[in-house]
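User: My collaborator sent over this chain with a note saying "see what the structure looks like." That's all I know about it. Can you take a look?
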Amino acid sequence: MTNSHADFILRLYEACLLSPNCPYTELGNQLGRQLGFFSLSIWAQHLLVREASAPIVFFQKGGAEKNPVEGRDLAAQVFKKPEIKQGTRNNLYYWVGPLAGAQIQSALIVWSDQPFSPSDLASLEALAPRLTVLLDLIQLNDLSDSHRVARELQAAKFIQERLTPPLDALGGKEFLSYRMLPLHELGGDYLDIIPFADGSVGLTVADAMGKGVPGAFIMLMARTIFRFIAGGKIPPDRILSVLNNQFAREVQDMGVFVTQFYGIYDPQKSELLYANAGHNPPLLYQRRLGQTRVLKGGGVALGGKMGAVYKSYKVKLESGDILAVFSDGLWDARNGEGVRFGRQGLENAVLSYKEYTADAICDGLMRKIMQHSQSQEDDLSFLILKAD
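Assistant: Without extra context I'll predict from the sequence alone. Here is the result:
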């Protein structure tokens, strides 16, 4: 590894802060070329998913790919106890350092196929505080350019964050997990997990028309109505019918609508009862058959038609089956050639990480999306259920 020095740091700052595309992608490329290690990543504490982290920078030599769960576990350890960690996993050596900035809390993880030399360790320790400053500058630069840092919006962001379910919403059960990544500080997607007394769980993903502040307020209205009527474990078709009529009355003069998928999963019977109001059909991977299919059923988007009728469907999940429920942001994520992530990208991600837990599959799917698309154009939310 080449030791960090003033010229490299200057070039690094310039390349990232003046990048016309994604500064985090540029940061990963610059560090990867300069340091020469097998792999590196920077994980940041997630803004909306409590007790979770997400990779914002990633670089790896060659075409091989490691599951992101390795990095997530190491980052979580550093977030709990901010100190440098070293060790070995899967025949690779790792070094993890905290990057505790004023604007963003993150961790640098470096993997090597050879033991770290004393000069390697000294260079990484010298690099860490400079990366911390750079990440803070990237965050501040993004906020100042968008002019969206008013106190009212920060308060609204905090409220929206508190309305999302905690990552451990099911008390340690690992069959269900999710991720959310809004386009702006406020998002128009809505995702919820509702544990019921009998052990079953309600799960929903909704997408309000609009982004930013307008989408967030529509989402908040839809969520408030949904939470009010969904607590009694009412069948999904009835929930969507009541929600649609109430929502249509509230917004009939605004010309807005919300798409929503709602299901009730019984882990004891491995059965999912669900209904759909104009939302993307979820993808189901069936382990026994080794193939995927979309769940049947559709319906009118909420607020689109007073008195709309919805239908509940039931599907049996076998051990190892994986259900992915997602918003438009995942399906429509495009690469530089305009190709959507789409069903093919989702299928590839599920098949790549099918042997892992729901939470690790979420990490893998996020990694695949980041590989495919370097810029985000819509709110992105998804929920992964893996039958046990």
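A starting point for your reply to your collaborator: The two ends are 44 Å apart (CA to CA).
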